[in-house]
Amino acid sequence: MNRELRVAAYAVCVRDGRVLLARWVAPGGAKRWTLPGGGMDHGEDPYDTVIREVAEETGYAVEPVRLLGVHSITRRYPRRLGAFADFQGLRLVYEGEITGGELRHETTGSTDLAAWHPLDDVPRLDHVELVDTGIELWRTKPATGRVAVPGT
Predict the structure, then answer these.
(1) Most buried residue, 11, 30, 73, 91, by most Cβ within 10 Å?
(2) Domains of the chain, start order
(3) Are 37 and 11 in contact (CB under 8 A)?
(4) Please, what are the averages of pLDDT over each run of 10 residues along the chain (152 residues)?
(5) CA separation (Å) from 131 to 3, 10, 40, 126, 142?
């Protein structure tokens, strides 16, 4: 089984009670809302990653104002020829402030739409778990940088 590690940086941008989300297009075509952000290039600082990714996915310039936390996930994914990958995603989540640019949609990447959503509407959106984690980190700003997991 192949081991895969993906390090990524994301931004929680909240303005006037709305959060900025990008609609991720999964392999196979399923679409779900996520935080704007994505994979770090080799040698790239995560601070620069979140700035680049937010611009690519939303058209906005963002200033990361604080590191909210780190979210780690593990998954087992099928790969070619019947193989599987033991995948770990390490996500650095920043609070971001929009400083310029104009909302636009990505046309050549892993997302196809960007939009502001009222925070109260997020639970009803088809979205990835990172959205809930990011919003909880933004709301609580835990000193550990980790959302409390019940029972731990």
Answers:
(1) 11
(2) 2-140 (3.90.79.10)
(3) yes
(4) 90 98 91 96 97 97 97 86 86 98 91 97 96 96 83 52
(5) 25, 10, 19, 10, 16
